[in-house]
Design brief:
By secondary structure, this protein is α+β, with helices and mostly antiparallel strands. It has 7 helices and 7 strands, in the order H-H-H-H-E-E-E-E-H-E-E-H-E-H. The longest helix has 28 residues, at 177-204.
Length: 214
């Protein structure tokens, strides 16, 4: 079946460029067969649920791409079903560039990266804003983030049109504070145990050279 991502991204200009660099034949295979809708699977859902940030690109009325960072607690992006994502859009710098662009053109591109495991997922879709005060009660409830200190202004719904996993090449591993704490906890526990053992040995077998004369 034809890959939705290739069908969208392999434009005439892209195909000519692929031909120029000798990769057209291998890429053309992805366009062959009947078309099918993009459907997020268990792997994608698990990956998205673990993200605490991503980048979203929109297009302005003058054709300029605009890339914005979005962040929140891990899991702030919800997979509502195999075709729809939703996330809480927080009150920010009050410029509303992404929101304004989407009023003109609803197409978006997302890049989500797990730097620790060197994984990257690209998503293409059609997005729409819903003011949180006007959102369906069930949707508003699903987007709640507990004690996270941020004001939710809007819900953003994205109909997924295509997605693609990237290779890990050139992704520099980076670790969050939580990652580092988890990785060092075992070492800290081992150090504490060795210090305790050393203290016990010193107490039971004092060094004769440190004894005071009678």
């Amino acid at each position: 079946m034809a890959d939705p991502y290739a069908r969208i991204t392999f434009t005439d200009s892209v195909c000519r460029t692929q031909s120029h660099y000798g990769t057209r034949a291998q890429n053309a295979v992805r366009e062959q067969g009947a078309q099918h809708p993009a459907r997020l699977g268990a792997r994608e859902a698990q990956f998205i649920a673990g993200r605490d940030s991503f980048y979203i690109a929109t297009v302005s009325e003058t054709g300029w791409p605009y890339v914005q960072h979005r962040g929140g607690p891990p899991g702030f992006v919800r997979v509502l079903d195999a075709n729809i994502l939703a996330y809480a859009d927080f009150r920010g710098n009050l410029q509303y560039v992404s929101a304004g662009n989407l009023a003109h053109d609803d197409r978006v591109a997302l890049i989500m990266v797990d730097y620790t495991r060197r994984q990257r997922l690209k998503i293409l879709g059609h997005a729409r804003y819903v003011d949180i005060a006007q959102a369906d009660a069930s949707l508003a409830e699903r987007l709640q983030l507990g004690a996270y200190a941020a004001e939710i202004e809007r819900a953003v719904l994205i109909d997924v049109a295509a997605f693609e996993w990237n290779c890990p090449r050139h992704i520099t591993p980076r670790h969050t504070e939580a990652d580092l704490k988890n990785r060092t906890a075992e070492l800290e526990a081992r150090i504490a145990e060795l210090e305790r053992q050393l203290a016990d040995r010193s107490a039971s077998n004092p060094d004769p050279s440190t004894r005071r004369p009678a």
